[in-house]
Amino acid sequence: MGNYDDVTAVLDTTAGEMKLEFFEDKAPGHVKNFVELAEKGFYDGTIFHRVIPGFMIQGGCPEGSGRGGPGYQIKAEFNDVPHTRGVLSMARSQSPDSAGSQFFICHGDAGFLDRQYTAFGRLVEGDDTLDAIAQGETLPGGEKSSPKNPVKINSVRIERSQG
What is the DSSP code (8-state) at residue 151? Predict the structure, then answer.
């Protein structure tokens, strides 16, 4: 694995910026996967396609539908990081080892996800942006989580601190 201890990601969205730090010691494969996808521009132009206030915002689907991914899946790295507000975690299907590119950021505490989803980072700047995305109006139907005016991820910038 690479050394991602001093690496952060800045999500530049149409609602503002969010800065994330990573937990390489807890989920090295997920950190590596996210950073590599970001550096390739995979997330650029994607949207937050699932938004549930008080729970989470989800993005990273290349189709914007919640069904797309990078064409591969990665093995789960469940850990003891609690799913509290601001925690970055990987979305997946019912299979534990089905994560690919979709991620979510907790908007509220979600302890029922602990040790069932791979937490691999946390929000360190941009709490107001998280709120703005989570509070957006959603369309009726289903779980009412499809945003009426989805927030776009313009780019994900990977930053490495020197020193």
Answer: P
For 138, list phi and psi in degrees, rounded to 5: -115, 160
Identify whether the C-beta of residue 124 lies closer than 8 Å to the C-beta of residue 8. Answer: yes
Q: Residue 106: name the closest of 161, 51, 157 by CA.
A: 51
Neighbours of 102 (CB within 10 A): 23
Contacts of 21 (CB under 8 A, 6+ apart): 8, 121, 122, 124
- Residue among 42, 54, 33 nearest 11 (CA): 42
Residue 117 lies in a domain: yes
**For residue 5, what are its two tokens?**
């201890």
- The reply to whether 2 falls in a domain is no
Please tell me the pTM assigned to this model: 0.96
76-129 tens-digit pLDDT: 999 999 999 999 999 999 999 999 999 999 999 999 999 999 999 999 999 999
Q: What phi, psi does 75 have (nearest 5°)?
A: -70, 140
Q: Which domain holds residue 11?
A: 7-160
pLDDT in tens, 10-66: 999 999 999 999 999 999 999 999 999 999 999 999 999 999 999 999 999 999 999
